[in-house]
Design brief:
Helix content: over 70%
CATH superfamily: MetI-like
Number of domains: 1
């Protein structure tokens, strides 16, 4: 009599593609598409900025004064007397040589200015993202562990109210409460001017200055992650695998963390990539409110001075950051879930 107890041993081995190989193939395909995206961003931004009235010479003359001869001289010196097509071709040719041009406002290479401001924006965005994603996911798990309970309703209503608050208004409220009234934290800036601090003391000073802007930028998106995690967990509780885990008598804490929260986490990773562009746009307002010398405040200064080359450089660097973050999210998705991107990577 034949025994089928070891029937599975006769089954052919399942061929599974290596997750890392699939992720690298997906990365290669996305990089090719990203080059066309950057080209569209550069050309579209250039044409939109050229369609706006006025130029850098007009902004300079308004602030300093000058006659018609100076206006013509400045337009010739800054290349503004050429046609739009010629200036676009020259700008694209310079980009091929990794040259972002010269800022007419600061009279310095644009790459040097951006490299000075970029670390501040990255620290601000990274800290705000870690705050919103980490704390928002944790509160979402806490609320979604018992859907319909008091804590679920309280956190859901509170997150909705927080998400409806404008970022600049929240920043001003934080300044009034913690910097003006309580005097616990500095009003703005990135560090104490001429403090002479180095090493750990300087790092602590920078961290103290970043508490308010990071809170103002991160709390808005914290509410979004909380609601998404809570909604995903509420949907996961009705799935068959959760019902099976409960029927097996597994502890509720294990079901929440190992089954429900884990499956609800994947949409949050997708939102993390989409939120990067919104976070970068929100940093423009927050950096202006708190006088943080980052890319956002630099963009405001470029707009005020009608510095088109500098503004194009900021837009290009911002687009590269958004694309890089979304590539990392795609790689994380491909590694965490083998079904995602398998067909695209194998094509």
């Amino acid at each position: 009599m034949l025994s089928f107890e070891n029937e599975s041993s006769f089954a052919p081995p399942v061929q599974r593609p290596f997750a890392m190989t699939r992720a690298l193939r997906l990365l290669r395909r996305r990089l090719v598409g990203s080059a066309f995206v950057l080209l569209i961003v550069v050309i579209g931004s250039f044409l939109l900025l050229e369609a706006a009235p006025g130029d850098a010479v007009d902004a300079y003359i308004v602030s300093t004064g000058g006659d018609a001869g100076m206006i013509e001289l400045l337009r010739h010196r800054w290349g503004l007397d050429q046609s739009e097509l010629t200036r676009l071709a020259n700008y694209l040719w310079a980009l091929l040589h990794l040259d972002l041009g010269q800022s007419v406002t600061f009279s310095r290479p644009i790459s040097d200015i951006i490299l000075e401001r970029l670390p501040t924006t990255l620290i601000l965005m990274g800290s705000a993202t870690a705050l919103s994603f980490g704390l928002g996911s944790a509160l979402g798990i806490y609320a979604g562990a018992r859907p319909g309970s008091f804590r679920d309703r309280f956190l859901s209503i509170g997150s909705l109210a927080l998400y409806a608050v404008p970022g600049f208004w929240l920043g001003l409220v934080l300044i009034v409460v913690f910097a003006v009234d309580l005097r616990w934290l500095p009003i703005g800036g990135i560090e104490t001017i001429a403090s002479g601090k180095t090493g750990f003391s300087r790092a602590a000073d920078v961290a103290t200055h970043l508490v308010l802007p990071v809170s103002a930028l991160g709390f808005i998106y914290l509410a979004l992650y909380l609601r998404m995690m809570r909604a995903g967990m509420a949907e996961a509780w009705r799935q068959d695998f959760v019902l099976a885990a409960r029927a097996r008598g597994l502890p509720r804490r294990r079901i929440v963390l190992a089954h429900v929260a884990r499956n609800a986490l994947l949409p949050l990773i997708t939102m993390l990539g989409l939120q990067s562009a919104q976070m970068l746009g929100g940093s423009v307002v927050i950096e202006s409110v708190f006088a943080v010398p980052g890319l956002g405040r630099l963009a405001q200064e470029a707009v005020a001075g009608r510095d088109t080359p500098l503004l194009l450089g900021i837009i290009l660097v911002s687009a590269v950051l958004v694309i890089a973050i979304n590539l990392l999210v795609d790689l994380a998705y491909a590694v965490l879930d083998p079904r995602v991107g398998a067909g695209e990577a194998s094509a």
